[in-house]
Design brief:
Largest sheet: 4 strands, antiparallel
Strand content: 35-45%
Helix content: 10-25%
Order of helices and strands: EHEEHEEEEE
Shape: globular
């Protein structure tokens, strides 16, 4: 089953922390497209290199949009991917 799109950890000094993402935030949209699956969201962010992403989050019952600028890093396979520094619950 898909993992819920709720932030369980925000890594220090990473783009998500710098943008103000917090543990417990529910990500409901990415660049205006609804998000229902953590892995699909990660895949989309990994393909986003050199461009910001706009996350629509729900925090304490209120929605807000947060722009995050992914860092480009090498993944385990040596491919360059975009990362923002969050992990699921």
């Amino acid at each position: 089953p898909p993992l819920p799109v709720i932030v369980g950890q925000v890594l220090s000094h990473q783009p998500a922390e710098k943008a103000g993402i917090q543990v417990g935030d529910r990500i409901i949209a990415l660049n205006g497209q609804p998000v229902h699956d953590w892995q699909k969201m990660v895949n989309t962010i990994q393909k986003t290199i050199g461009k910001p992403v706009v996350l629509t989050i729900e925090r304490k019952g209120e929605q807000q949009k947060i722009t995050v600028f992914p860092e480009t890093k090498k993944n385990n396979e040596g491919k360059m991917v975009g990362m923002i520094g969050v992990q699921s619950q």
